[in-house]
Structures are given as C-alpha cells and as structure tokens.
Design brief:
This protein is α+β, with helices and mostly antiparallel strands and 313 residues long. The protein is 19% helix and 31% strand. The longest helix has 12 residues, at 84-95.
Length: 313
C-alpha cells in the first residue's frame, strides 16, 4: 500500500447490510459462499462472494456475527447497496428448509476507518477479521467494529446506526473523509469492491483476486461455483488479473467498463478509479508485453495507461 495518511472515517453509501437469523444461519451461508466462514463461529469476520454455478461473481460479502459474544445464530452481511435486494432474494431462494430468516438490516449504516493507526484509534485488534462490539447490541445503539478481513492494514468497518457510528468516530478522534478518499486507499491496495469493480456475472473469482483477499477457500465443502473456481486454480487457467493503473499524464480515467486496448487487440477493461488512478481487469500476457516494451502500450479511450507490477501477493 503506497499511501500514508492519518486515520480518517468515511460513510459508504454504496454499501449496505442484511441480517440472517436462526440456528442454521452460519451453516446455510457457508454452504453458498466462496470463503471459509468457520471462524465466524468464534466471533471473527470473513470475506467471500456468492457466485453463479458457472463461477462468476454475483455479490462480494463481508460476514460477521452481530454479537461476537453470542455465537453465530445472528449474522450481519455487508454487501453492495444497489444489489442488497437481489442478494436477499437469491438467498431466500436457496433457503428451502433451513432455519434462518433473511432481511435487510434496516437502520444500520456502513462506514470505514482507514489510514495509518485506524485500528489503534478505535482500540480494536488490527488482525484481519477481528470483531469488537461497543455500546451494546447494534440494534440498540451499539457499533460493531470489524477489522477488514481482506488484508492487513486495509481499515476497520463500523456497522451501526448513523448516530452511533458518528459518536464512535468522534470518541476516537477520527477526522471525516469522503467515500472517494476510501476508494483511492483501497485502489492503491488493489482491492475491488462493489459492482464497479465486480460487475455481476462478468468475471470469475480468481480473476478478481478473491483468492489473494482471503475470499476463496479451496479446502472447504461444496459451495455454488466451486467446481469452476477450483479448476481455474489447479489448471492454471487464470489469464486475467486485476492491476492498478495510472494515466501517463495524470488525466482522469474513463468510467468503469471502458475497454483497455493493446494496440488493436483487447486487453481488458477499466474498473473503479479516482482521478488518474484506478483498477483494471487485464490480460496478463498483454500487460506484461506492454510493460516490457515488447508489445503495444495500453490505452483506454485514447489515454495511455501504465499498469503497476502486481508483486508477489
């Protein structure tokens, strides 16, 4: 992560919460999503996705117990706000005889504290997936603080009522930030989030780095889309990956979905961006050729792009 900033907090109107209640809540959800949810039983948060049977991403999810001290019969699930209704509908279709109710978590908002020392400012464990409840139950004015399970140092999610989250941020001395500030922070870390980065039914889990972000379990039981996801890994069939890209002259990047070209050949397409920095899903071979100078440079709407090296993570 290349940015170093003081800890700040941003409301995320593009994110929403749903709630699962019932004795089968964890078992039910674990049988559907790509990540391993077993640690949720122990009061931790996990990341994963609901996939199509063909292995394409539908919803990216952060899952945590609503009350870490009370087991896993009541779960909060963070998802993309525009897709929350679809998520509730799809989970309900899978419910069958499972002892679980699925509903929007009305009245709760999502915020994120990020930057150097964000976890310390909130007095929470900085280990990914740590969960701490403050002020009581989230339904009664408490706040659930969730250290982002996707990678270390990414930030801390705060789930609760608007006022409770604001009070917690003030008590921690966190300055306010905009959602775009958070987007730049996670883009620099190459972390996709929501439909701008993970357009429904348009890409596979491994292409979008869910394996790198603790969002795919290769040793758990069956889940929807498991066969394609596992085959992609063990046959080495992942030909596209996410890259952080920058415009050569600082120009603003075009919108998500804009094709990226390597000369006359398609190389991928853009995802979310802030100014001249963004995420793109790109063919690995054509991106490597552009970086090495053995192939055409990458462009989007005529704007020259430079893809950063992915490193070893």
């Amino acid at each position: 992560m290349t940015l170093t900033i003081q800890p700040r907090i941003a409301r995320l109107p593009g994110r929403s919460l749903i709630m699962l209640d019932g004795a089968d809540a964890l078992r039910f959800l674990d049988g559907l999503v790509s990540g391993d949810l077993d640690p949720v039983e122990e009061g931790r948060a996990r990341y994963g996705a609901l996939l199509t049977p063909q292995g394409k991403i539908l919803h990216d999810l952060i899952v945590a117990p609503a009350d870490p001290a009370a087991g896993a019969e009541r779960l909060l699930v963070e998802c993309a706000a525009p897709l929350a209704g679809d998520l509730v509908k799809r989970l309900t279709l899978y419910k069958l005889r499972a002892k679980v109710t699925i509903r929007p978590a009305t009245g709760l908002v999502v915020a994120v504290a990020f930057g150097s020392g964000a976890a310390a400012a909130l007095s929470v464990d900085d280990a990914p997936g740590s969960v701490r409840a403050t002020g009581g139950d989230v339904a009664e004015g408490g706040v659930l603080q969730v250290t982002d399970p996707r990678r270390a140092g990414l930030g801390v999610r705060l789930w609760g009522s608007d006022q409770a989250v604001a009070d917690r941020a003030a008590a921690a001395g966190l300055a306010s930030a905009e959602a775009a500030d958070w987007d730049l922070w996670r883009i620099e870390a190459r972390v996709p989030e929501g439909p701008a980065d993970l357009p429904p039914e348009q890409g596979l889990a491994l292409e979008h780095d869910l394996d790198r972000l603790n969002g795919v379990a290769f040793d758990k039981g069956c889940y929807v889309g498991q066969e394609v996801t596992t085959r992609s890994k063990f046959r080495g069939q992942v030909r596209k990956r996410l890259f952080v890209v920058d415009t050569a002259d600082g120009a603003r990047l075009p919108p998500p979905g804009t094709p990226v070209m390597a000369g006359e050949r398609a190389a991928g397409d853009l995802r979310s961006s802030v100014g001249g920095t963004g995420i793109a899903l790109l063919r690995i071979d054509r991106t490597d050729e552009a970086a090495a100078g053995s192939g055409p440079v990458l462009t989007a709407d005529g704007i020259t792009l430079a893809a950063r090296p992915r490193g070893d993570d």
